[in-house]
Amino acid sequence: MTAVGTHCPYCALQCATTLHPVGRPGAVAVQPRDFPTNRGGLCRKGWTAPEVLTVPDRLTRPLVRDAAGELVETSWDEALDFVADRIRVLQAAHGNDAVAVFGGGGLTNEKAYALGKFARVTLRTSNVDYNGRFCMSSAAAATNRAFGVDRGLPFPLEDLGGAGAILLVGSNLAETMPPAVAHLKAARAAGGLIVVDPRRTATAGLAEDGAGVHLQATPGSDLALVLALTHVILQEGLGDTAYLEARTDDPDGLYRSTAAWWPERAERITGVPASTIRQAARVLAAAAPMHGGAGAFILTGRGAEQHSKGTDTVTACINLALALGLPGRLGSGYGCITGQGNGQGGREHGQKADQLPGYRSIADPAARSYIAGVWGVEPDELPGPGRSAVELINALGTPDGPRALLVHGSNLVVSAPRLASVRERLAALDLLVVADVVPSETALLADVVFPVTQWAEEEGTMTSLEGRVLRRRAAVPAPGEVRSDLAVFAGLAERLRPSIPFSTDPAEIFEELRAASAGGIADYSGISWSRLDAGEALFWPCPAEDHPGTPRLFADTFGTPDGRARVIAVDHQPVADDLRDDAPLYLVTGRLLQHYQSGAQTRRVAELTEAEPEVFAEIHPRVAAQLGVADGRPVRLATARGSMVLPARVTADVRPDTVFVPFHYGGEGSVNELTNDALDPISRMPEFKVCAVDLTPAWAVVR
Ligand SMILES: Nc1nc2c(c(=O)[nH]1)N[C@H]1C(S)=C(S)[C@@H](COP(=O)(O)OP(=O)(O)OC[C@H]3O[C@@H](n4cnc5c(=O)[nH]c(N)nc54)[C@H](O)[C@@H]3O)O[C@H]1N2
Ligand SMILES: Nc1nc2c(c(=O)[nH]1)N[C@H]1C(S)=C(S)[C@@H](COP(=O)(O)OP(=O)(O)OC[C@H]3O[C@@H](n4cnc5c(=O)[nH]c(N)nc54)[C@H](O)[C@@H]3O)O[C@H]1N2
Ligand code: SF4
Ligand SMILES: [Mo]
């Protein structure tokens, strides 16, 4: 085979790459390709991604657990027969909802679409959700209610390049999407980069070095901070009143809901000096279009979103953007930085508990009847909304809950919150089926494991953080008996409901997805593989073959019924599991440059594991001195849900009241043993980012 143009397997930046087969079976070399988001750059994960194709423990044959409890190799037919029989028996005894499906934001659009259809049509279960609930859901909920549309960035990433100010709330872009840092250059140079993070991250460093501002706020206090920024802008007469009148439904509501948030009050909650809050607000306002500035952006990452108040925090950020007149203005706006490779497309095609393809609502009768028509079933047959990810996990094996779970594209025994309970729920199942490329921690618990293709072995499409649809292309054949996730859905459909067959050809599935999305919010009907292969840059909505796609949304109107953005009044709320005498520090979690998510892939790459081999806890030197803990020495972290022992990394980059632990490690290195599964009431997002923790030197632990 010759060189193939595709995109990185990991994050939503979807850096463009060229793959060259290198002789060894299944192996490729990677080169970055010029592309608007990565401009010829790749991060270390992207450079080393080919290694995952040929890892020694790659899954190459289906596995089934034998009588002795060992996972042993079997054939596809036997594995599919076994799973289909078990599903049949469990559904006959306990109803259709006895089987649940858990998807992933890394799956291609075709896989995500087929997964949702398989759950609704073959299994006829309402129990389907995915790991995007851990990732995107708060921003999605907030943008849906304010704008009526959820597209992470409603503008191309390149638009950041001209901005005079960029406010990053809880995003560590320099480590989580390093090539994207190039787009911050102008704002940095103008002293307009403002970063809100309880740690002095590489991204916060970019702000400080560029004469910008690092707001090192108390974890969980973003909502108060953003309310105060908005307060300053409105009270100092810096708001865009004409825009608010013309383009929002309730300017007065915006004034009322922020009137009491003077900076001195926010200082008490956030720890950020009132003068710094005022300064940041003025920097933002100066860049806003109404003041003749170069443009301003407000962007949120998981640091702002993964909270029990995440939806309201994002809403406050949107309100701030509205106050400045940013959304829909060329060169300005609000955006959420989507995380997973197909985090955007993965949330549009129906793997979400409440959703049908095209970003349609499963509760909407018109949507149900349209999709039922595409699928060739009766609308009444389609199940209703199901449980969200954490609620689904918590219900597994309970009297009313699912008895079987099929997992495609998530390593949830590392990445879900409050792991002791996750393990208990998985153990209570009658059947756990995991499709993966490697024996992940979750796959190792399964009754049946299906070995599936990964990025460089398959064709399909991904939708990047910009809402741009990209082609994933195969460069090498899959090893052994590896097949696509699509073969799992098709094989089970053939056994369980042969009257509605599933294709294993991604191109064919994309054609059906186009039809299913037609007329929906995320309308892909005008996007074809041939247009993409011809190099067209197509952003959804793209409702016709001759439609150019929509790089920028909201220029004239929002997606709400009256076309105006909704101002939703929000107020600060405390952390769900807040500080107390026996847990006096905040535990915050997040990412390292070198590892991806649960680490299932990157912990198998030598260069990356050598760089960051094990979990650690970042603690402030003052705390270390008080406890008598030296750098590298073991500490014990204990929360209401669990405890772990891990080495301390002593650094002044973290707030003294905060401990940071990355979540990329399995087994005893999983910080999710400690995290809180308190949910945001609207998005059902768990509070991964903050909970109270007790920190002690590990040798003081009495066992
Ligand atoms: N290297 C790497 N890159 C990735 C990924 C990966 O696993 N590794 N995953 C991809 C995915 S799926 C995602 S979702 C994105 C996530 O990308 P980011 O959102 O940038 O990543 P995080 O590290 O989870 O969180 C960002 C920051 O939030 C801070 N934080 C914690 N609590 C708070 C808080 O209460 N308020 C504020 N303001 N900040 C807080 C943390 O200190 C952290 O620096 O990254 C994508 N890119
Ligand atoms: N404490 C804490 N926990 C967190 C977070 C945090 O910030 N803090 N962040 C959360 C976020 S934002 C996210 S996105 C989640 C992610 O966490 P997970 O859902 O665990 O995501 P991954 O580790 O990417 O797992 C993907 C799995 O699918 C496999 N895989 C890759 N491609 C395919 C494919 O095409 N098909 C199939 N079947 N499998 C495939 C990979 O090998 C891997 O085992 O973690 C969440 N958990
Ligand atoms: S930034 Fe994201 S898409 Fe780009 S190389 Fe790194 S992991 Fe891959
Ligand atoms: Mo994510």
Structure, described:
The chain has 703 residues and is an alpha/beta fold. The protein folds into four domains: 4-54, N-terminal domain of TfIIb; 63-134 and 350-505, Rossmann fold (3-Layer(aba) Sandwich), CATH 3.40.50.740; 137-336, Dimethylsulfoxide Reductase, domain 2, CATH 3.40.228; 585-697, Barwin-like endoglucanases (Beta Barrel), CATH 2.40.40. It is 30% helix and 16% strand. A seven-stranded mixed sheet has the order 5-4-17-16-15-6-7, with helices on one face. Strands 22-24-23-26-21-25 form a six-stranded mixed sheet. A hairpin with a 4-residue loop joins β18 (460-463) and β19 (468-472). α3 runs parallel beside α19. The longest helix is centred in the first third of the chain and has 19 residues, at 76-94. The radius of gyration is 24 Å and the shape is globular. 60% of the residues are buried. Iron/sulfur cluster is lined by residues 8, 10-11, 13-15, 38, 42-43, 45-46, 177-179. Residues 104-107, 131, 134-135, 302, 306, 339-340, 408-412, 414-415, 435-438, 440, 452, 454, 485, 589-590, 597-598, 600-601, 663, 671-672, 675, 688 line the site of one ligand MGD. Keywords: 4Fe-4S, Iron, Iron-sulfur, Metal-binding. InterPro entries: Asp_de-COase-like_dom_sf, MoPterin_dinucl-bd_dom, Mopterin_OxRdtase, Mopterin_OxRdtase_4Fe-4S_dom, Prok_molybdopt-oxidoreductase. Residues 1-57 form the 4Fe-4S Mo/W bis-MGD-type domain. This is Molybdopterin oxidoreductase family protein.
